[in-house]
Fold this sequence. Notes:
Shape: globular
Number of strands: 3
Structural class: alpha+beta
Distance between the termini: 14 Å
Strand content: 15-25%
Radius of gyration: 12 Å
Strand order of the largest sheet: 1-2-3
Order of helices and strands: EEEHHH
Amino acid sequence: MKHYEYYTQGTCAVKIEFDIDDNDNIHNTVFTRGCNGNLKAISKLIEGKNRKEVAEILKGNKCGFRETSCADQLSKALFEVETK
Length: 84
């Protein structure tokens, strides 16, 4: 299992940490700052799910007037794993 940290842009959350296992599944997702209840719910919903599938689902999600959201930033972080 490999651990990742992603520093967000344009959201209340400032950092997202997560692990990816050898089967490309997500574990142990933690957001630093942001809407605590909603972000804990996202973490529970994606636990054990495939990284690419989750990234596609969350991609482009916006928060109010912002051009991004914590979910969209998580998507970007999950896509970035491919390039490492």
